[in-house]
Design goal:
By secondary structure, this protein is α/β, with parallel strands linked by helices. Helices cover about 50% and strands about 20% of the residues. The strands form two sheets. Strands 3, 4, 5, 6, 7, 8, 9, 10 and 11 form a nine-stranded mixed β-sheet that branches.
Length: about 300
């Protein structure tokens, strides 16, 4: 089975439209339909059904998605690694959740790529479940998250501690900040349980999100409050765009690095882990640039 057939299938899944999938893949809509029919014939099942103007996956199609993603990701990684063997000793694939990248990994990636010579890196944004599955399938070398991975094959070690502070768009008490426009950000399962204990009597949040950047943009534009990394909000605290709720104690969230215990590149992974452990989180590069631009004006 040609891997292009699976790539086409996944593109249709993403777009829920044969025409848009064809445009994205630079092929005709007839070619997309032919590839989907080829896949359906191979598995002897229907993968999509039309519902008015929309295309939906059948139950068989839903079950095929993770297998298709694994096949495409594995082949792409193998192709990349084979092409890199002439120039690089090792390629490492690193993944983290969106919040991890915004608050910590972006700066760390700059440091590690400068420090390690002879390495090539692939960086991805994945959920904890996706990282666990990818490591089990040996398509991911390093996963970074707020929660350790709890499987026998994977080792997890704490490599950093991130400080979260309650900030708001205008000076106010903690009780007002948590009841008027509060945005709940998902900082992992441990944070969820501790948050429920610390703020047991607060009303439902105004907005829930799994992305700290979304929360930051929202409260800057609409007003409100949220727990966000100090390293991210520092420029906004200094400029007076945000205010820290003084009466509220900061929250410290451990950052974990995970990898397969029997990984082929275990020596390289160990070097990376030591670099992460020694890297202090700094204000993200984009925010630093913004601050520098404002200073220049």
């Amino acid at each position: 089975m040609d891997i292009k057939v699976f790539k086409t299938f996944l593109e249709v899944v993403r777009e829920k439209h044969f025409g848009r999938a064809a445009d994205n893949l630079y092929i005709t809509q007839a070619a997309v339909s032919a590839r989907i029919k080829q896949l359906e014939a191979f598995f002897d099942t229907t993968l999509f059904v039309r519902d008015r103007n929309a295309i939906k996956l059948t139950s068989a199609g839903e079950r095929l998605v993770p297998y298709g993603e694994t096949m495409v990701r594995t082949l792409d990684q193998a192709k990349t690694e084979l092409l890199l063997t002439k120039d690089y000793a090792v390629q490492l694939t690193i993944a983290g959740t969106p919040n991890i990248w915004d608050a910590f990994l972006q700066h760390w990636l700059s440091v590690v790529t400068e420090e390690l010579q002879g390495y090539s890196f692939c960086a991805e944004v994945l959920s904890l479940e996706q990282m666990t599955r990818a490591q089990m399938e040996r398509t991911l070398d390093i996963g970074v998250s707020f929660d350790p991975m709890k499987t026998d094959e994977i080792a997890s070690q704490q490599v950093a501690m991130l400080e979260l502070v309650l900030v708001c768009s205008q000076p106010q008490s903690a009780s007002n900040a948590l009841t008027q426009g509060y945005v709940y950000v998902d900082w992992g399962t441990r944070f969820a349980s501790e948050h429920a204990e610390r703020h047991a009597k607060m009303p439902p949040p105004y907005l829930r999100t799994s992305n700290g950047q979304i929360a930051l943009n929202f409260i800057l534009e609409k007003g409100g409050a949220a727990y966000l990394p100090r390293v991210v909000v520092t420029p906004f605290l200094e400029s007076g765009q945000l205010y820290e709720v003084d009466a509220q104690q900061p929250w410290y969230r451990p950052v974990y690095l995970s990898y397969r215990k029997d990984a082929v590149a275990i020596k390289a992974i160990s070097k990376v882990a030591r670099l992460i452990d020694k890297t202090e989180p700094l204000t993200p590069f984009v925010l630093q640039q913004a601050g520098d631009s404002n200073d220049a004006e």
